[in-house]
Design goal:
By secondary structure, the protein is mainly α. Helices cover about 65% and strands about 5% of the residues. It folds into 2 domains: about 5-100; about 115-260, Lysozyme. The strands form 2 sheets. Strands 1-2 form a two-stranded antiparallel ribbon. A two-stranded antiparallel sheet has the order 3-4. Strand 3 (about 240) and strand 4 (about 240-245) form a beta hairpin.
Length: about 260
Amino acid sequence: MDLRSWLPRAVPEWRRVLSLSLSFWMQFAGVAVLLLPELRYRQTGQDYDPNIAWWLGMLLLIAGLVGRVFQQGVSIWKEWLRIVAVAALCLALAVMLATPSPAAPLAPAKAATEAETLDIAVPFIAKEEGERLVAYRDAVGVPTIGFGHTAGVYMGMVITHQQALDMLRQDAAAHRSGLHRYFVPATIFTRLPPTRDAAYTSTAFNVGVAGIGKSTATRRLNAGDIVGGCQALTWFDKAGKRVLRGLFERRQREKKLCMIGAS
């Protein structure tokens, strides 16, 4: 039996029914793509790339709206023009938001002192890392205590909150000092106020000094592109080539700290 000849007889308005059904399921799928990753994260703690989820959800919702226009069959070209105009506006806004603005010229300033930076970096990192006052083994089996301190730690070791903060300050200072070897003098003296210094130190504390020192974030900052450098810090949000929600959110907070005074 020829399906093309049988379907119109069985369902006289099959085109309209099919269009309406596809439109509904496209919109349903778009909402599901936006919501299900959030529900999965709350239930299991497993992450999903929020950028992929957002763009895929938007595409499905737009496809559903286009299907509705076809289904209505009224002023089709006028509706298409509206859809194209809205899509072009959304794309233009997305490109504008994703493109770093040119670095603004900065007046010469004195370099941030270690104390000024650590006064910002230590509480910031402490909040991000979480505190353990009893020694434990990390993911690779290394005895760890406080806010990720490993030097001289042994199983059964117990410390106070103040000792944990002192250890963190010592570790943060070492990461800052190591990272500064990758900065050119112009960066240290004109582009690195305590807040931005703390943001880079926090990322280095989490990723490693060499990882940040040799990164695009540091190269851009050394070249005078402050906004681009702060944006590049957010690229360190993956583990095993997959975006992790916790890292994604931490990098956004570090970027916000980095951007203070950038404009």
